[in-house]
Amino acid sequence: MANEANGVQIYCTDCGTVMQGWKETICRCGGTWDVRRPIASMDGERLRRLFDERLGQRSGVYASGVWRYRELIAPELPEEALVYRGEGNTGLYDSTAAAQYAGVRRIWLKAQSENPSGSFKDNGMVAAVSHGRSLGNKWFACSSTGNTSASLAMYAAWCGLQSLVLAPAKGISPAKISQTSAYGARILAFDGTYDDGIRFLRQSAEKLGLYVCNSLNPYRIEGQKSIVYELAQQLDWSLPDWIAIPGGALSHVSALGKGLEELFALGLIGRLPRIALIQAEGASPFHRMVQSGAASLTPEPKPNTRASALNIGNPPSWRKALKALQMTNGVTAAVSDEQIMAAKRIIDRSGIGCEPASAATLAGVLKLRTEGIIDGDETAACILTGNLLKDIDALHELYENAGDASGGTLNVERVAELCSVQASP
Amino acid sequence: MANEANGVQIYCTDCGTVMQGWKETICRCGGTWDVRRPIASMDGERLRRLFDERLGQRSGVYASGVWRYRELIAPELPEEALVYRGEGNTGLYDSTAAAQYAGVRRIWLKAQSENPSGSFKDNGMVAAVSHGRSLGNKWFACSSTGNTSASLAMYAAWCGLQSLVLAPAKGISPAKISQTSAYGARILAFDGTYDDGIRFLRQSAEKLGLYVCNSLNPYRIEGQKSIVYELAQQLDWSLPDWIAIPGGALSHVSALGKGLEELFALGLIGRLPRIALIQAEGASPFHRMVQSGAASLTPEPKPNTRASALNIGNPPSWRKALKALQMTNGVTAAVSDEQIMAAKRIIDRSGIGCEPASAATLAGVLKLRTEGIIDGDETAACILTGNLLKDIDALHELYENAGDASGGTLNVERVAELCSVQASP
């Protein structure tokens, strides 16, 4: 795939080595691969027209909210290899309730939770699976705390391919692992963490003939760039002052930064928004690194947050994440589980809904506003990464006392009391 | 709303009385209301062009997969009263696996499970809430086993309105009730059935100032017609031989029949497909009525099926359902929970996924094929009514042994065994 003829190179972000052929996992130096595209030679105006024209498509590959932007994601893959299953095309909601909560001028909620498997992972996974399929792979694998595995399992099933999921036996969402299993993935639950699973795949995937779909796969990042492309297109190519995203494995911020850089270089957006990367306090090694000014990331050996999608102690993409932050004059913040669940309540009760990890964004905007880093007159987009239905335990905890669950008979008096209304005679 | 000037009438399907003003619940005779539109005076060709043009819209009210068809759903409501939140626009999947399983030529899966609240209920609910809002209501209520309540609660939250859900304390999906609660509904769990809740609302809703959003609300049916409009449009206005839908409260089949009748009368489709209405064996009073040739429905006092969305013993819309069946030369079938779960496995493992009730459609097509009622050369669309994530207990039961959940260490040998692959040296 790395092909000088079409100007595409895959190179190591650490040592600069250019990949020859396809190495599925990591560079010999231990660094991660990234795809370099000839953005400077592309015609931004032509692309904008093309992307806008494709909005009218309702079927076929270019109706996908990822492949609409194919020229920036993977033009080097043959069209017949491209997988699509309704990903992207997610809603963007102008939320007064969220803006009031955080004390800023305007907040848009970008609901990647509306993707087919219920999370933002589909945007990147569809590109990785397309790439792996173009090379003739049969087995696709990942280490996952949930959303990644469900997305991989869905796309593998959709294409008639096989998937293997390495899942930490503890601390994952039952809904996510059940969903993964339903799509037919082989699941190996092990005693260890997400990070242990990544380490195993780095060492053994080639030996086992597994195509690795974690975010160290550079096509995950390429596909995931489509989130900010779509956000920009929905806002008529003018982005808000801030984009807030949750930070777990940090592939999301890497993709966001790369997508922004490209949009800016192409002249599709006139200025760069600032990135606000929000981690959960119990799993915030990246935030701590940025705060302390340390030169490298010290993993958190025992990550611990209620927002299961963020429960990652050794994020593999921290170098790319740092680059994205620096490029956009971005900031980090860490929020408590209580702050996350309070923000989730706002998002849920606005009729949008999300899983806890997604709500870290709104909690983070509030925190950064309180600290004076975000101004009250500024605007922000919060990327909602996972569907409300993805993490049902969180609902039980938060909402079990929201009504009258006592059973018993139904009568006018009970209803009138519960709703604080008066019954007419 | 009932307005002779624009040719729209709301009338009782039992006694024929034309509604004067708006009565929220039922006719004095006990019958249900229906909306009559001046279809005969409408220009089908003009409508088709209009609906096709609107496919290019990606924001605003006409980007909705319901309001795209506004002229057939509720032109009498003022545009500013129309609620929309990304409903409809769901995927249609040509599934070889499903066709092979049922032994028919071709099966499309129409994934209403991709609606914003995760079920087909959004199509009808958005119309009912729009209508209720146009009348100035503040409190919206329903009796529900789950999907209806989640949909209502979502739209009420989205519009800043209040919702009340009467929920049977037993036999409902925890995911659905948690979702409902998350959106901020007041929930009253009571000892009784869905049918008891309906009876209470019929008697007491007006007294309590509640706008009732169950399917006895005729705007639920009007909105729900959009499912078959969209299906027809996606298939370039040519429907398959059969449309299979699950039967619980029977509003779905009523809406489907009405939508088909209109499409045919307008010349938008050249022939009517046959409806296959599938019930779960443990909750199949309508199927039994049809089979026995009885003149009226005998309720099932203790409905009992694993497919919780179908667990309804006294479906309020059975008269409309019968009319729809007769018009399309339709049939009914009842399938066991085992047959439902086996069909669910096929749909899940094709990468689409659904809740158990939805899988009754595919199980029913297989059964009707086996009985020779559906021919092997025929085609069918199965309407998937609810998202995979809506009924997670079902997943645990079915899939808990799909992998290796034993924990322990991660090594090449375990992976090789689980995936039946050979590790290279």
Automatic annotation (TrEMBL), chains A, B:
Gene Ontology biological process: isoleucine biosynthetic process; L-serine catabolic process; L-threonine catabolic process; threonine biosynthetic process
Indicate yes or no for the key word Secreted.
no
**Upper taxonomic lineage:** Bacteria, Bacillati, Bacillota, Bacilli, Bacillales
Which InterPro entries does UniProt cross-reference here? Ser/Thr_Dehydratase (IPR050147), Thr_synthase-like (IPR004450), TrpB-like_PALP (IPR001926), TrpB-like_PALP_sf (IPR036052)
Keyword terms: Lyase, Pyridoxal phosphate
| Name of the protein described by the UniProt record | Threonine synthase
| EC number per UniProt | 4.2.3.1
- Family membership, please give it: Belongs to the threonine synthase family.
Q: Which organism is it from?
A: Paenibacillus piri
- Keyword Membrane applies: no
Q: Where is the Tryptophan synthase beta chain-like PALP domain?
A: 85-386
- The superkingdom listed in its UniProt entry is Bacteria
Q: Where are the membrane-spanning stretches?
A: none
One annotated GO molecular function: threonine deaminase activity
Chain positions with N6-(pyridoxal phosphate)lysine modification: K121
Tell me the cofactors it needs. Answer: pyridoxal 5'-phosphate
